[in-house]
Amino acid sequence: MIPTCCNYPAGLVAVVSLLFIASCSVPQVVTRAAEVPIPDTFPAATADTTEIAAGRRWDDFFTDPYLLGLIDTALVNNKEVNILLQRIAVARNEIQARKGEYLPTVNAGLGTEVEKVGRYTRNGALEESLEINEDRAFPEFLTNIQFGLYASWELDVWKQLRNARKVAVLEYLATVEGRNFLITNLVAEIADSYFELLALDSELDNIERNIAIQEDALRVVNLMQQAGRSNTLAVRRFEAEVQKNRSETYRVRQDIAAVENRINFLTGRLPGPVARTSDDFLALQPVSVATGIPSQLLRNRPDIRQAELEMAAADLDVDVARANFLPSFGIRAGLGYQAFNLRYLLKTPESLLLSLAGDAMAPLVNRNAIEAEYQNAGARQVQAAYEYEQTVLDAYREVATEISNIDKLADAYRLKEEQVAMLDEAIEVSNKLFQSTRAEYLEVLLTQRDALEARTDLIETRKEQLAATVNLYQALGGGWK
């Protein structure tokens, strides 16, 4: 008969063979590298690599002290920013959790139990034949007391745990970039809302000045009617126009209240008046924005950097999922004391407890869950690559659109400005002609209405110019530093 001890090498060879087979049967997964060809320059823009607008801090790009104060308040009180800060804290703690997984674990333990076994069992029969020195008879209720140190360590042979930690680091950095992107959007939204508020103030002032002009015209029409040079129809038409514009002021005031409430919400405050500049809105000049070159978007836009980090994390996730097919190795050890009575607990070496074990395990059959997670990791990697490409293309589109928008709005503003000047002059001429009965009252009314609409359009165009400048600054990746 072959000795039992000789069977161990054969069994060991069989186990190692199974582990080797398991490690060699890793399925393939499809991954993808991101490819985004972008041109060297933006259309209709000069390549300025020395002073790109995105490199300017928001408190340098904007100069209005009231706007700067609103942005400062929002960065401290905005609820969405504060929520994201807590997500960043969670991601930072996840790094520590992942780091601890590939380091040895040592625990201190203390335990006690009482057990009584049946007499007609193997343990019961064994206890029946034993004697304890002091009491001679074996105790009916056997107490087990133990304490010591217990260690375990999973050997990170395939770098699965270390890669998982790198994934946590990349996800943390991506969360930080997500915060920067949120701040960029927040700064831009507050600036857009602030300029919209100034535009509404200017529109309200324009309506009130037009009402004053129409009231003067109404006074003249009343005098002309008294002198028999006009009729009641003209008086009523002028009165109706005055009332129409007075009712329009309430709409504008409601729009002002709505924008003020939006700004207060963004800054984390309750509804109330918003302090703002009282300068002439049309005198505000859009800031010149240096666009730089498209490749600078890759390092200036937080959303692109976030997508890049998420893509890198997805790449490592594939390696982490692949390691689940490979054997895992672990070491377990224990050192302490164990006895059934406190009086024997610290006797050495009789009560000394010592254990050391190692194990290796690999999945052999029914690996569906592991394979599914591996395929999912590959699909997420491909998805992250497409999302990165989409983010870059969207960033380029936004910059190109705003560059074109700024140029077209500048031309439109110049023409509208000339139109307003002509209509202001036409109002004076029509009033003089009407007073000398050389023009109909309808001509005066239509001229005043056209002038009001033209100046309103001019204010709207200036607001769009300022908004386009802010949007271009945001699209270039500015506003978060």
Automatic annotation (TrEMBL):
Pfam families per the UniProt record, alphabetical: OEP (PF02321)
MF annotations from Gene Ontology: efflux transmembrane transporter activity
UniProt-listed InterPro entries: MdtP/NodT-like (IPR010131), OMP_efflux (IPR003423)
Signal peptide range: 1-27
SUPFAM superfamilies found in the cross-reference section: Outer membrane efflux proteins (OEP) (SSF56954)
Keywords for the protein's UniProt record, in alphabetical order: Lipoprotein, Membrane, Palmitate, Signal, Transmembrane, Transmembrane beta strand
Topology of this chain in the membrane: Lipid-anchor
Transmembrane segments: none
Location within or outside the cell: Cell membrane
Any Gene Ontology CC annotation: plasma membrane
Main location: membrane
Family to which this protein belongs: Belongs to the outer membrane factor (OMF) (TC 1.B.17) family.
Protein name per the record: NodT family efflux transporter outer membrane factor (OMF) lipoprotein
Organism: Neolewinella xylanilytica
